[in-house]
Every structure is written in C-alpha cells, then in structure tokens.
Structure prediction request, 173 residues.
Amino acid sequence: MRIALDQLTAELQDHLAEIGFEAVDVRTGGGARRVRLQVRVDHRDAEPGRKVTIDDCATVSRHLEAWLDASGMLGDGYVLEVSSPGMERPVRWVAHWARFVGRDVDVRLRDRGRVRARIIAVDQDQAMVTLGLPDGNATTVPVTEARDATLAVDWDAALRPRAGDRSDDLAQE
Prediction:
C-alpha cells in the first residue's frame, strides 16, 4: 500500500461525505501486489432506524472505485469491500463516542478486559471518554485505550417478535 492508513481514512471520509456517507471502520490487508480495503459505512445523518442497504453499498463502492482507480493510491490490483456497520457497529473515533453518549458498548479496557459499559461523557478536545462500568463505578480513559468497541446489542430483545409482526400472526393460526 502506498499510503498510510490514517491518511487513507481521512481521504475516504472526504470522498464519502460527497455522497452522504461516512466511514465507520477502515481496515487494510492482503499483500504488496493485491491490497484488500474493507470499508464499513453509515449514513452521515444516521437517524435511528435508517439502515445501509445493498444499493447503498453498491453506490459507495462505485464512487470509491472511481476515485481509487483515478488516484492509483492502492496500485493497480486491489480488492474493495464495502459493507454496512451492522447492529454491533464499531465505535472507533472520538466523534463516534460523542454521537453515542448514553448507549452501551462492549469494549476492551486495559486492566479490565472486555466489559459492557455505558458511555457517560466524552471530552472531544482531550479525546477522553467516561464509561459507566457494571460494578457501578465510572472510569475515564483516552479513546485510544478503549479498544475494539462496538455498540452493545440486547440480542434477546432484538430477536423477540414485535406485536403486529407476521410471525405473531402465524403463531396464533
């Protein structure tokens, strides 16, 4: 790869903003001959309930491919994978932490391991996040030390049929 990941991510964000999206996670892999670029995207406005569709991913992919091909920054042979952030959306950058204040996250913290915590506050200028821990205490850490964070999902609630769903109708027939 001919460009540092931080610089690539910043340029990706600029190009995605042109079409109303943002990168939620950016990862690279592969080898020197064939770079693999994985980009998870979300709508910039990300209203609750608004999901990234397959058509959205195709639109983003075409937009990024045109830019990557013209710039040549990944070379001639690369693989671009564009996907939605999923229900367990990554929380990577300070802006993500600020956006999801009040939400629960699954996060790996130094000296604590993987925990479920609530985002209580974010100091964007200092890049610090305050997390409410399961034991009732709170801890404030640099965002860079809150690793592998994803929005927490209550899978029991997510998979429970809602009133009016067709599955409820079938169960009663």
Q: What stands out?
A: Strands lie at 21-30, 35-43, 78-83, 104-109, 113-123, 128-132, 138-142, 146-151. The CA atoms of residues 91 and 137 lie 21 Å apart. The radius of gyration is 19 Å.
